[in-house]
Design goal:
Number of helices: 10
Strand content: under 5%
Shape: globular
Distance between the termini: 58 Å
Radius of gyration: 22 Å
Number of domains: 1
Oligomer: single chain
CATH class: Mainly Alpha
Length: 258
C-alpha cells in the first residue's frame, strides 16, 4: 500500500486528474490575488514602505540580502515567530507535511498517472509521510494547542470562519489517506471516500478568499518588512513584543533586572 501510487489505480482518465490539479492551482492564485486586492495588503505594505523611507536609515544591498536570508531561514523555514515550542513543532509538522504531500501528489498525477507507468516507491511513501505529518500536526494543534481550547477552555468542536483553512486541510488530507487505504484494501466504498476527498480538496483550494490560506504568502513579506523596519530605525520608538519587552533595548535599565 505504501509503495503504490493511489492515483494510478483510479479508472479516471489522466487528463481529467491533471486538469483538476491545474484548476486547483489557478483557484489558489486567483484567490490570493483577490485577497490582496480586497484586503489591501499589498497597498498597505507599499504605502507604509514609502512613508517610512524618507525617515529611515538607508540600507545597503548586503544588509537587505542578509535580512532576506534571516527572514527565509528563521521566520519561514523555522517558523521563528512562534514562541511556544509546542505550537512551533505542530506548525512545522503541518507546513512541511503539506508541502511534501502536495509535491508528491503533483509528481504522481503528472509523471506516473497510470499503472502502465508505475511510480518509484519513493513518491507514494513520501505522499503517505507528508499526509501523516499534516494529520499529526493539524489534529495536535486543533485539539490541544488552539488558544480558545488550551487557555479558555472552549469546546474543541467550536468552529468559526477563521477555522476554515485548518479544517478543510485536515478534512482533505484525512479523507485522502482513508481513500488510499480503502482502495488498497479493495473496498467497495473506496470511490465514495474518493468523492468526499475531492469535495474537501475543492473547498480547501477554492475557499482561499475566505480562509487563512493566503496568509502563508503574506507572512514572509510581513516578516521581511518588520526586520527591515528594525534595521533602518523606523521602529525605534515602538515597544518590543509583549513577551519579550527587553528586546531592542526598549526597557529602562532599572526595569530589566526584575
Amino acid at each position: 500500500m505504501l509503495a503504490t501510487n493511489p492515483f494510478a489505480a483510479l479508472s479516471i482518465p489522466p487528463a481529467v486528474m491533471q486538469a483538476y490539479v491545474i484548476v486547483m492551482i489557478v483557484l489558489v492564485a486567483a484567490g490570493t490575488l483577490f485577497d490582496i486586492v480586497h484586503k489591501g495588503s499589498a497597498k498597505y505594505f507599499f504605502e507604509n514602505w514609502r512613508k517610512t523611507k524618507s525617515k529611515a536609515r538607508q540600507l545597503g544591498g548586503g544588509e537587505l540580502a542578509s535580512i532576506a536570508l534571516q527572514t527565509a531561514v528563521v521566520d519561514v523555514l523555522a517558523s521563528g515567530e512562534f514562541c511556544s515550542a509546542r505550537r512551533r513543532v505542530a506548525h512545522l509538522l503541518t507546513m512541511y507535511g503539506f508541502v511534501i504531500y502536495v509535491v508528491a501528489t503533483v509528481v504522481m498525477v503528472f509523471g506516473y498517472p497510470t499503472l502502465a507507468t508505475p511510480a518509484p516507491a519513493f513518491w507514494p511513501r513520501l505522499w503517505w509521510l507528508g499526509g501523516l505529518m499534516v494529520v499529526v500536526g493539524g489534529y495536535w494543534f486543533w485539539f490541544f494547542i488552539r488558544v480558545d481550547v488550551a487557555a479558555e477552555g472552549s469546546s474543541p468542536f467550536r468552529v468559526m470562519r477563521a477555522d476554515l483553512f485548518v479544517l478543510s486541510l485536515l478534512a482533505s488530507v484525512t479523507l485522502a489517506l482513508i481513500w488510499a487505504y480503502m482502495q488498497a484494501s479493495a473496498s467497495v466504498w473506496s470511490y465514495a471516500w474518493f468523492a468526499l476527498y475531492v469535495i474537501a480538496t475543492t473547498v480547501l483550494f477554492g475557499s482561499v478568499p475566505w480562509s487563512k490560506f493566503a496568509h502563508m504568502f503574506f507572512k514572509p513579506a510581513a516578516a521581511f518588512e518588520k526586520r527591515v523596519s528594525y534595521a533602518n530605525g523606523t521602529r525605534a520608538n515602538l515597544p518590543g513584543p509583549a513577551d519579550q519587552p527587553e528586546q531592542f533595548g526598549r526597557v529602562p535599565k532599572h526595569v530589566r533586572h526584575y
